[in-house]
Amino acid sequence: MSRINEIVSTADARRIYDSLQPRQDSGWNYRLRKFGMFLLGLLAAIAFFFPLYWLIMIALTSQALIGREPSILITDPSIFNFVTVWYQSDILVLFANSLIITIIAVVGNLVLCSFIAYSLTRDFHGKRGLEILLVAAMLVPFQTSIIPAFLVTRELGLLNSRLGVALPFTVSVIIILILASAFRSVPQSLVDSARMDGASELYIIFGVFWPLSRPALATTAILSFVWMWNEYMWPLVVISSPSNRPLPLGLAEFQSTLAGEFALQYAYVILITLPVIVMFLLLQRQFIRSIAQSALKE
């Protein structure tokens, strides 16, 4: 009797196992499904890259040819517009200002948000309320707090300075939550071992959590870099001296000065976009790994 039960249970297990396996389509149905997925991906790629291609095409076209009949292909390309923007504008000064401001914001986010994220991995009274408060703070746009931020910046004597532009962006709720999620995946045994060896809390953060959270750190670096590099409203409020303006303010002035010169404007946009592309290319492996790890978490 036990032998019969064993055979029946084995058959049931085999049937359940087969039902859980993905069905392998064959023939024309499988080929049509694969072709449909490929075609859908191709259309999505074209829709995504065509505006970028059009931007590059106009930037490589002389101003005299822009008014003619438009063409999909790049005809008679020239880097004259890029050379004109590079030498006849103050893009180098603006680039240096944006780079300094962005570096301050990125470093501030990585360090300060790591402290807050580390505290969220500990158990303390009111932790749940603090997490709810952080999530609620994400619903408040920065524009609603721009007047208090301006008053605080003025009291600190940081108006019309690069530090004054970067200071409000050195802490971000989204980055805190990303780092806190990554820090929670670090085994507690490693933290306990570090404490037993006499490690300080700073060493635990930078010597234990950081090496094991590189994908999350790369993600936060990319996000903070893009946010600060593209920020327009806050520098417009804080900066009054032309020598301290970042690139977004310079682009707005460049567009108003050369209204109608689309080739020069597009060349300017491409030049100020290159650092963001380079930043992503340098950290794309860690960024993709961070997304994969987030998808695998239960």
TrEMBL record:
Membrane association type: Multi-pass membrane protein
GO biological process: transmembrane transport
Matching CDD domains: TM_PBP2 (cd06261)
Any one GO CC term of the record: plasma membrane
Keywords assigned: Cell membrane, Membrane, Transmembrane, Transmembrane helix, Transport
Superkingdom of origin organism: Archaea
A Pfam family assignment: BPD_transp_1
Keyword DNA repair belongs to the record: no
Residues of the ABC transmembrane type-1 domain: 95-283
Localization: Cell membrane
Record field: transmembrane: 35-60, 95-120, 132-151, 163-183, 203-229, 263-283
Family named by the database record: Belongs to the binding-protein-dependent transport system permease family.
Name by which UniProt lists this protein: Carbohydrate ABC transporter permease
